[in-house]
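Reopening this one. Same input as before:
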Amino acid sequence: KRSAEDFVYSDNSVLELSNAIKEHTGDGRAVFVGFVLHELSRGHLAPLSVMSGKPLVASSPFHNLWWYTELVPAPFLRDGPEGIERYLTLVNATVVIAHEDKWKEAISKLGYPKVGNHGKFSVYKREVDSNYIIEGQADSIIQYASSVTLTPRSEKLLLSFAYHYFLETDNCKISGREDLIPGMPLIELSDCTIGAPVTIKAKSGLKRL
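Same output, byte for byte:
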């Protein structure tokens, strides 16, 4: 028995959006507010991270959500523009991307300059310095495909990275802090050796058992 499969070719907006993310994101993150399913040329967002070489934040980059799921948690939305601004700072957003009219209006009210329109998406630049350190001090922060490295300048750090139980690190103790972003615990490092390089990475499969 044969079934019909629907194939489409991407339009220019995919490459244009990828280039815009690459140009404007800097050392921070590109954040897709609202909910994105097939609005990117009838495809998903996941390839944009590879194409642009920049980290993305979205409600989901894949087709694993079957109903509207807002990225920004409700407590931040209830606080209006100040709450949205606070959330974007916590996730280190340097670029904000929206395709829904309500979100385009909301982002415009925050005063972010629009730097482009690509297909259904509008791209806005947050004129802030990238900062993955929410509390404490550290430098030499580098993101790799499977790890993050940094050098602590304080014994305790709160990072703008999601915590998972299978993460491990050296020269610090690692835990999750859950009081800032509902549903997304952030990485907290404690008892760090100041000046000693730290690598955060996933444990091997055997260590997770």
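So the earlier flakiness isn't reproducible anymore. For the record, The first strand starts at residue 29 and ends at 32.
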